[in-house]
Structure formats: C-alpha cells, structure tokens
Design goal:
Two copies of one chain form a homodimer. The first copy, chain A, is of the alpha/beta class. The first copy, chain A, folds into two domains: about 60 residues, no CATH class; about 210 residues, NAD(P)-binding Rossmann-like Domain (Rossmann fold, 3-Layer(aba) Sandwich). Helix content of chain A is about 35%, strand content about 25%. In chain A, the strands form four sheets. An eight-stranded mixed β-sheet of chain A has the order 9-8-7-10-11-14-15-16, with helices on both faces. In chain A, α2 links the parallel β7 and β8. In chain A, α4 packs parallel to α5. Chains A and B meet through β13, β15, α9 and β17 of A and β13, β15, α9 and β17 of B. β17 of chain A pairs antiparallel with β17 of chain B.
C-alpha cells in the first residue's frame, strides 16, 4: 500500500464520497469536498478532495518525510497495449510493476518494451515480466486485462492468490460480427459482474475501459481525460482513485455500483465505432462534473 | 429544409464521411476533412468540415444572400426538460419549433415557458405548442422525446404523418429498481432499434441522450460538449449534424450505425449514476477526436 509518513491512506477524489485514512490502527472516515495538496510515496504532488476531520488530520502529517515503500501493481494478461500503457503510467508515478502473461518470455519482452519507453522518465520504478500467477501473488493491486475469452479461466487459476486483493477489471467483451464493433456482454450484464459473481472474495473495481492505450504509452504527455471506475467496495474504489490521481492529467470519476460496468464496457464499443469513423484514438470524458 | 442561396445543403461534421450538397437537381457527393465557414438560414456563422469538390462548389455560392426560409423542428412529447431544452436551442438558431404533447394545453404551456427563456435571445424563431399529431405533420425534422413507455404507442399513432421524415430518437429506457438507475433495453438491444424495426419508413437517427437538459435551457451559454448521434441513414445524419452544428458549443459526433444507440442509451444510465454521486448535471464528451 501507499504510505505518507506514519499514515496509511486511502483518499477518494469524488465530492461528498466517504474518504478514509488509516493512522496505524486508527481509521478516520469523513466527507470530501475541497482540495488539498499531498505528496505520494515518491514525493510527487497530487490533489485530493478533502475537508473537515480528514483535512485536519492531514495537516498534522503533511510535514512528514515520505517513506520509500511503494505499492506493487500487477497486470494479468498485461502484454497488450492496455496493460503496457497502464504499466508505463504507474511505473512513471513510482510504483513497481509486474507484467503478467501465460508465457513468461512474452511477459519479459513486454516489460523490456515498457522499460525502453520509461527511459524518457526520471525516477521510474521497477518493471518486470512474470507468469500471471507470480504477478498475482507479488502485487498489492491487480489489473485484469486478459481478453474476455480468457477471463474465467484466468480467475479459476488465480483466485486463491488474488483473494482479498483489489482487482480492477478492464475487460470489455466485444464482437465484430458483420464488420460492426459491438458489445457482447454475458447474460448477467457485464464481464465485471460475471467476474465478481464467480470470485466474490476478490475486492472488485471495474473501469479504465475508455482510455486510449496509445495515449497511455506516451509517458511524458498529460492524458487530459477521465478514468471512469465503478464498484461495490467503496474502500477499494478509494485506493484505486488515489492511484489513478497520480497519473498526470487523469481524473478518476466514480460511476457508482459495479453494475455501471455495463455502460463502461458498452462505451468501449461506442469508442471503437467512433475511432473507426474518425481514424482517431479518442477517450471518454465527463463534462460539467461538479468537483472542487 | 435549410437553404443557402439557391442550394439545398446537407453538410456533415465528421472527417472523411461523405458530405452531400444539392444544387437544384444536382447532387454533389464528396469527402470531408477541412474547415469552411458558412452561414445558416438566419445568417449565423457556423463551421463545416469540407474539402475538394464540395468546398469548390461552396466557394461559388458563398456570396449568395441567405433566404429567409427555415426548417421547422418538431418535438413529440416535448414538454419535458429535454424537449424544451432542445426547443430553446433550435429556436435560438432560427428554426421554427413545434412542441408536441398528447395534451394541447400542456404543449402551449411548455411553448410559453420556452418563449420566456428565449426573451434573452435576439432573433429567435417562432415556438408554438400543439398536439403531437400536429407537431409531426408540421415539421421537417422530428425529435422523439416521449418516455420509453409511450414510444411504441406514439409511433403507432403518428407513423403515417412521420413517414419519410427524419426522426431523431432521444429515448433511453431506464429502470430504478433497488434505487440504482439502470438501463432497461428492449430485447433487440435499444429503444432506437426497436422503433426503427417497427417503423422502417421513417428516416431514423438516434442521439443527444447524453446532453444536460439544464444546460440546454440556458440559451446564452455555450454548451461546450458533444452531441453523439448514430444511424443507418447517412444523409439523415448529415442533416441532423448540420442542425446541431448551429447550436453554440455543440459538436456533432457520428458514432456509426443505429446499433450504437445501445451504448448511448446505456450512457444515460451511466451519467445519472455519476450525477447522483457528484450532484452535477454532467454530459458526455469525446476527447482526442481527430477533426479539423
């Protein structure tokens, strides 16, 4: 987990959503709606929306020297552009990254590509390739970026090493029948709900479907877009939001319960249709959000 | 239809999409990818993406004095905030508007509200209330903004007066079971596809689901958002895009075939979840679109 001085923290970037801080054994919950500047584990500044009791407690710790401990972020099936793109951004923000694959040599190859991209960035954290099982057990937060066809098999194999961990489902089931990119959701409504039903002991968050992998892979440019996430575990969303806030130009947006994954997975098909027509690499943003 | 000098025109704001112009009996089709300034029927400037043969033809007509003829825009079930909001914007752009309702007095009341809002705007066109059947027969382009529960009954009653006309389906079927706003699409996938299957002789476009009605109702502020539309009738999309381009700060985005309405209707549920959480009136925009 991320640390700032003696405090383990979970900060959520949504207004009026509960924010939680841990000071050793003490847990402080509060309401969130004004900005405060913090530094992350690597000393980079980022903004959080805070007020009241939490802001007061943070004033008390803001002069502490950050520890060097950082969280490790894992990717299951992370050799594709989405996995590599997110790996670039999280490593640039100072988190160690493990890119997982069923094939160890492909994982190492993808990690090497990410390291070449990160040569533009000073102070990037470590990136390594590994088998999916190693990535799962070595990581604090795990992103599931396998193709939908492999999702259930991956969960079957990895559920015990993922149990209790925050898992972010980035999968969009798609079909291309008749040349038209279309959402092809499972009966339950979304891949995210299907995964959560199958492995309820994982701490599921879904999101990041609508980011441009090409933009993620350019570590020195600001993304200027939104990372829309959803889930039923508020604390897990807080942690993921804090992580996403560390990526320059990426604003986490909380779209509610895990059921909202239906619309985010559908939005992937929408964006593919738009990108096909405009020959672009567009992403989805929310205009007029009431923050700050 | 809209006229500029002697030319009836259909201009589409998407890059590389076909654009079509009519000069009396002559139809010119071409490829679109650079900007040109035009004036609409009321003389307001707006941008279109044009090149090649079309741009050349437009140079020839750009000095013509605009005619005073304007198209009439109708709203079926237009007394709610979406209908009134769009009515405000189209009347402000110089198009006569007919707000339809099953109840003539409610339609007149809604039209009066719109006229009060339009008192801030100079040169707004006429707005009147009428029965849905009158709105359908009096209008060149018709927006269907009834609640989903009334959609099929409205189409049954109005299909003969709507036949051959461009109809824009703005309906999102929703449920609020368990307090969670959710998309509740019909078996076929979307309300838009269901409507088009039932009335294939209407020229269907779907879109505008993800605009903020509250923002539409403020005629003097720029919207700064995207009007995402889709449909299988390219010429109908061209006409609707040209109309939308006349609203300040509104960028039409073509999301492909009518099937994409599934994702736009779903995005309504996504936005309601986000707005509930952030107490906002947000809309959806596409970042990184390759235009201009």
């Amino acid at each position: 987990m991320m640390h700032t001085g003696p405090c383990q923290r979970y900060v959520f970037a949504g207004p009026r959503a509960g924010a939680m801080l841990r000071f050793g054994p003490t847990v402080v919950k509060g309401v969130v709606d004004s900005f405060i500047h913090l530094t992350n584990a690597r000393g980079s500044a980022f903004n959080c929306l805070l007020r009241g009791r939490i802001a007061k407690h943070l004033e008390g710790i803001s002069s502490h020297v950050p520890e060097s401990s950082v969280s490790t972020i894992g990717f299951i099936g992370g050799t594709g552009p989405e996995g590599r793109g997110l790996a670039v951004r999280f490593a640039a923000a100072g988190h160690n990254v493990v890119i997982g694959s069923r094939d160890a040599s492909r994982a190492v190859e993808a990690a090497d590509e990410v390291k070449i991209i990160l040569s533009e960035v000073s102070d990037a954290a470590d990136v390594r390739g590994a088998l999916n099982a190693d990535a799962a057990s070595a990581s604090d937060i795990v992103f599931i970026v396998v193709p939908y066809a492999g999702m259930m098999r991956s969960l079957e194999q990895l559920s015990s090493s993922l149990a209790g961990k925050i898992c972010v489902n980035v999968i969009s089931p798609l079909s291309f029948a008749g040349g038209i990119p279309a959402a092809a959701p499972p009966e339950i409504g979304s891949a995210a709900e299907e995964a959560a039903q199958y492995t309820p002991d994982l701490r599921w968050v879904a999101g990041l479907h609508t980011l441009s992998a090409r933009d993620l892979l350019k570590p020195t440019s600001s993304l200027d877009t939104d990372a829309i996430i959803c889930g039923d575990d508020d604390d897990a969303k807080l942690t993921v939001s804090a992580l996403l806030s560390e990526v320059p130009g990426l604003r986490p947006v909380d779209a509610g319960s895990l059921q909202s994954a239906r619309y985010l997975e559908g939005a992937t098909a929408l964006l593919i249709n738009i990108n096909k027509r405009y020959k672009s690499h567009a992403s989805l943003t929310i205009a007029g959000l009431n923050v700050g």
